[in-house]
């Protein structure tokens, strides 16, 4: 069977690439080793975690803020099996939607493990048994990533767990020890903290969400501490042991002192590693990076072998579903002879805790390192009428603008609905807007987005109105 494009992997990068290829008139096939499409994001990542985040937030509000709103409820309790059931239904509906889109766009799909026999031939070890070979002029590798394991701390999938198992617990942990203060760990940790777990975070760096602007990490730590979450920063985990239902985790403090923590669950969330093994890359002369297992690509996302492309988590850059989607579209259009474009500096990052965290462009630390002269405008949500009305006053919006030109260089938010608000900043920066441009645009009142306008005004000769 001959195709114009074969896509290996059905995550956000893979399925978007397949659909765009089909839209452009290319005969396309997609291979997925699991029974459902959508990859990590739809099955055990973005979608299920957001379902549980929303459920846990409803419970937290029922037990902590309803009374102040004048809503009296009695005997509120967690029904974790129902939460997990609803999460599963959301996942099934979403992955089922991808199956529909494949049929709609006439993309041929194969269930099994695809690997290179040669640069144009893909051998598929079919899930139902047997093998099949298909050939293609172009191949897109979109195999995603898997949770990173510490060499000295192997998850058992029951008490020492990864993000995958954390989405299917049958009980609310009494004490969850969370190794890693990054995006994935904090989202999952906050779910169980809201449901009543004691959560202790061990983070090797000196702040949480260390890849984002430091202001955001400091503000998020303040907010999550209100849930009862505890943070041990600059701590190096040295090991973990399991005895019965008790997990003991050891770490070294910044002073070199030994720290011992005991809990009933340990969630290891120290990042993700590219899933590039088993593809038969050695058969076509592609060598992955030793650290991180990433596949090297050029500016066209083409590997060292002509006609073989790679996108998403399996290549350099942030491991984000929407980055993979943009790259999937980029490669499809490049194969079709178009001239696509991606501005990697303007791909937003989001943490779906509550308050939400969102960021785009340069951080303040990066601007200092570059020697760029910049000015800062900050507006706190406690000064927002809309935020006070909804009791969501934690957080702020921070705008960084060029001192000379006033062009917006970075926007960093923590607060209500920032995951949605950041899109305005992305649009503004794509069109190279100035801080004054945002300050002069009318924003509906009262809305959370007014905080962005006020922060932009603050960066423009300190002109914020409401602080």
Q: What report would you give on this structure?
A:
The chain is an alpha/beta fold and 467 residues long. It folds into 3 domains: 2-147 and 273-344, FAD/NAD(P)-binding domain (3-Layer(bba) Sandwich), CATH 3.50.50; 160-270, FAD/NAD(P)-binding domain (3-Layer(bba) Sandwich), CATH 3.50.50.60; 355-459, 2-Layer Sandwich (Enolase-like, domain 1). The protein is 31% helix and 26% strand. The chain has a 5-stranded mixed barrel. Strand 4 and strand 5 (131-141) form a beta hairpin. The protein is globular.
Task: Briefly characterize the structure.
By secondary structure, this protein is α/β, with parallel strands linked by helices.
DSSP summary: helix tally: 13
Flag low-confidence runs: none
Which word captures the global form?
globular
Q: What is the number of beta strands?
A: 21
Write the layout of secondary structure elements.
Layout: E1 2-8, H1 12-23, E2 28-32, H2 39-44, H3 46-64, H4 80-104, E3 108-118, E4 121-126, E5 131-141, E6 145-147, E7 160-161, H5 163-166, E8 175-179, H6 183-194, E9 198-203, H7 214-225, E10 230-233, E11 236-243, E12 246-252, E13 258-263, E14 265-268, E15 272-274, E16 308-310, H8 321-335, E17 349-351, E18 356-361, H9 364-370, E19 374-380, H10 385-390, E20 396-402, E21 408-415, H11 418-430, H12 435-440, H13 450-459
Helix pairs in contact: 1-8, 3-4, 3-6
